[in-house]
Write a structure and sequence with these properties.
single chain; 374 residues; alpha/beta; TIM Barrel; eight-stranded parallel sheet; two-stranded antiparallel ribbon; 16 strands; 33% helix; 16% strand
């Protein structure tokens, strides 16, 4: 059955669904939430929760990356952010949080114009390693060739290459494009790369040797990509399509499993549940963790797209503060809006539908309810 609809006589498009459009369905079995496992492992690294922090200055500092690691998740530091441009970025983070909305993007462009310093990349990653947590850092595809050696020499455990759209076949007549397949093959650390939103693009990235693929364009609360570029990826459909690519690549490669990480539109616990139900192994959280009282953004949230020097396609948004990072992830919660105790909600959803672990929960039944969650 085709999922395409006719837009007009000269154009057809695929019908796609967001996390708000789907819901999981209880089955004949239920479980005790305490007996449910929400652990996740990528390569040699095990985590108690399937949570990866988005590499954004409003979410992650070296300190909050360590905090998240101690809470069972994976903190990823933006290696092109303020922490690698300034010895002490705290006054600048305070300034960004206090900016007038009409002047925010212009001033942020000025602040982020400072050069990235290799010694600061090394120092920040060493700070995370000394705390005993899994060390992960992110670069954009444009900066990877310039700084990857510094990152690897600093002892990173997981290397994240993250952009609005990342492909295995970037064409440029001016710049030598990053050859992902050769780069990943020659690297001694596992690489997570994205974002992608289609079956074909994901399959090509999996064939480069990536350990994980990011699905989506990241940071829904801080992006205006659809308004600026006309690009949008309804996440339920995108995750399900990439999960299908993972299944087919597993057969093609003779058993190599590539992890699917939902990156974007996971702002509440219900979104997290839907992401895993659609096939994600883990989720990358931005706005959800920016609401923590320890987050560097102080209740504000922004990504690198917000201060792009030529074409900003994101903005600084106020997300507020709802509790500590521990309360947001593990509870307890005094809220009923899905902003806190995300792991408790995931456990409860898995228990209510009778599934024991995340891999089993990817097989849960779902219903499509367009517009109900809007």
């Amino acid at each position: 059955m085709s999922n395409e609809i006719e837009i007009g006589r000269g154009k057809r498009g695929m019908r796609a669904y967001s996390f708000d459009d789907i819901a999981v369905v209880p089955s004949r079995r239920t479980r005790d939430p305490a007996e449910v496992s929400i652990g996740w492992q990528i390569d040699a690294y095990h985590f108690d929760t399937p949570v990866v922090a988005a590499p954004m200055d409003s979410v992650m500092s070296p300190g909050t990356a360590v905090l998240l690691g101690n809470l069972g998740g994976l903190g990823v530091l933006d290696l092109e952010g303020l922490w690698t441009r300034y010895d002490d970025p705290l006054p600048l983070l305070e300034e960004i949080a206090a900016l007038d909305p009409t002047a925010a993007i212009g001033r942020m462009q000025e602040i982020y114009a400072a050069p990235i310093q290799g010694e600061l990349i090394t120092g920040r990653l060493h700070q995370m390693r000394e705390a005993g947590v899994t060390v992960a850092g992110a670069l954009s595809p444009q900066r990877t060739q310039e700084f990857w050696r510094t990152v690897v020499d600093a002892g990173v455990d997981l290397f994240v290459i993250r952009g609005t759209t990342v492909s295995a076949e970037h064409v440029s007549s001016e710049l030598q494009p990053l050859n992902l397949k050769r780069f990943i093959y020659e690297l001694d650390v596992p690489v997570v790369v994205g974002g992608v939103a289609s079956y074909t693009a994901a399959l090509h990235l999996m064939r480069t040797g990536a350990a994980g693929v990011l699905v989506g364009f990241g940071g829904g609360a801080a992006h205006t990509t659809r308004v600026t570029l006309g690009i949008h990826a309804p996440m339920a459909t995108a995750v399900a399509d990439v999960a299908a690519a993972r299944r087919d690549y597993l057969d093609e490669s003779g058993g190599r499993y590539v992890h699917v990480i939902a990156d974007g539109s996971v702002g509440r616990s219900g979104d997290l549940v839907a992401a895993i139900a659609c096939g994600a192994d883990a989720v990358m959280l931005g706005a959800a963790l920016a609401r923590a009282t320890e987050a560097p953004g102080r209740g504000w949230h922004w990504g690198p797209e917000a201060h792009h020097p030529r074409l900003p396609r994101g903005e600084r948004v106020q997300v507020g503060q709802v509790g500590t990072m521990a309360e947001i992830l593990l509870g307890p919660s005094s809220r009923a809006d899905g902003a806190a105790n995300l792991m408790g909600a995931l456990r409860r959803a898995m228990a209510s539908t009778g599934f024991l672990d995340l891999k089993e929960f990817q097989r849960v039944g779902v219903v499509v309810t367009p517009g109900i969650g809007a």
